[in-house]
Amino acid sequence: MFFKNYRAVIFVGAVILAAVFLFSYGLKYDAGQSLLQRLALGAAAPVQKLLTLCVESVDNAWTRYIRLVGLEEENRKLKGAIGELQMQLTLYRQGYLEARRLQTLLSLEEREPYRFVAARIIGKEQGALAKTLWIDKGEAHGLKPGMPVMALPGLIGRLTNVSRHSAKVQLLIDEGSNVDVLVERTRQQGMLRGAGSRGCVVRYISKIQDVREGDVILTSGLSNVFPKGLLVGKVVHTDRSDAGMFLNIRVSPFADFTSLEEVLVLAGERKTPSGERKAAK
Amino acid sequence: MMYYVLLPFMAVVLVVLQSKLAEILFSGLLTLEMSLIVVIYAGFRLDLWKGAALSLVVGLAMDCLSGTVLGLFSLLYVCIFLFAWFVSSQIDSERLYLIAGFSLICAMVESLALVLIYQFVFEFDMVGKILPVLVPQTLLVSVLSVCFFYAMRRVERVLKYG
Fold first, then answer.
1. Closest CA of chain B from A1, distance in Å
2. How many domains does chain A have?
3. A200: Cβ–Cβ under 8 A, 6 or more apart, which residues?
4. CB contact under 8 A, B75 and A51
5. Last residue of a domain, one of A80, A111, A142
6. What's this model's pTM, rounded to 2 decimal places?
7. Which of B13, B49, B79 minimises the CB distance to A11?
8. pLDDT at position A278, please?
9. Are B71 and A55 inside 8 Å of each other by CB?
């Protein structure tokens, strides 16, 4: 009866006594390796390992995420650098190609006994009515209407309109272009006229003359507009079936007008060091 | 019966978990005393037998795993449990600010007891740790006890009403 009435008090007292006993025991005999501690450590070890594993997994995932964020940033920077380098490469390539073209023009200038003015093409008109170029040199550079314009390997046209700092070039293929020419092999003379997209045609060579495909056409120098001997083009087709007196000769100019970027304007004969003019070919 | 069988394992898990969390959150500078909050909760919600057993076992787990003298936390937790058990009839545990205040007092008493025991029994001066360690720990227990009681109230409602 007594125990039943004071059960709670007895229990509380027993618990407190147990705790005090444990503390006293711990104070007196604490060796750090009691059976209780070993059991507790044994039970805690798997839990600790599991928690550590979880924490490490989360930590690794986080670190990986951070690294990925860094990689993304690095990737963005590298892509930017690649773009910049590609742009530079394109510029250098353009410069290289320009240098090659200018070198080619220079070789022409060195080879021919004329004074050339190099010009850059700043516009092209390839319409049905006119086939012209627009260059960035004009009267200020000594250019005048009628001057022959060349690009490797030969003649491409002549200046028509010249302003202070620019000029128009009438191409050989322009329908209004007429150039006195001769066939290199047979020395037969004729008139080269532009034929638009078909190239050029040579007129006024008699049907009895021997003109073949592949023959080279040069300037004849008769009209005093173009110096004699400039390369013009190559015969690609001859036709004698017409009822007229003359051969129908189709000529393909040597220069590729679609890819021209720089040209040389033949501004006159080159002066020798002694002051004499070199004779034209 | 199952309660008493599982209690030691759960106590070990609790102590390991709180030390791991403290390591992650505070780099081991502070202790996250979830065990103390559980003991206070037991004082308010469990009967004398179950609560006393829980506080004794959790205290033992703390003693064994925290490296202190065997019985130190057992004695402290048993005392705190009994204090909470006696006070629970006077305080409405639904009022969370009262719980916060009571937890703060319990944590302060525990800290003070630890300082005094270490000072006089082990002659180890812990006065210097009161401000940087024990005060934040005490406040942390107070704040966390509110969260714990609130969460447990929700759990109890779910278990009771589904």
1. 19
2. 2
3. A172, A173, A177, A192, A193, A194, A232, A233, A250, A251, A252, A253
4. no
5. A111
6. 0.53
7. B49
8. 45
9. no
